[in-house]
Design goal:
Elements (H helix, E strand, L loop, with lengths): L3 E5 L4 H12 L5 E4 L4 H11 L6 E4 L2 E4 L5 H9 L4
Parallel strand pairs: 1-2
Antiparallel strand pairs: 1-3, 3-4
């Protein structure tokens, strides 16, 4: 089973879109709110070298944002878990 973490902030449409996609694929994930948890923010910055959410970490792959070009990569990264 893949280790999946989604770093989010409240009221973020892209964050919600990533979570919906993962749920639709039956992928279990841990959500970390970087606005409320400074340790999660530091962790996200270390892994992705960005300060914007969402950041999705699937295994050793890191995706930031949820632009059209990120969706295929996220789906491909989920394949080993299915």
């Amino acid at each position: 089973m893949l280790d999946i973490t989604v770093y989010t902030v409240p009221n973020c449409a892209d964050c919600e879109a990533v979570k919906r996609l993962l749920k639709s694929k039956g992928a279990a994930f841990t959500e970390k709110n970087v606005q409320e948890d400074p340790a999660a923010l530091a962790e996200m910055q270390h892994k992705a070298n960005v300060r914007i959410a969402p950041v999705t970490v699937i295994g050793d792959q890191v995706f930031y944002g949820f632009f059209g070009d990120q969706r295929p990569g996220i789906l491909a990264a989920l394949e080993p878990a299915q």
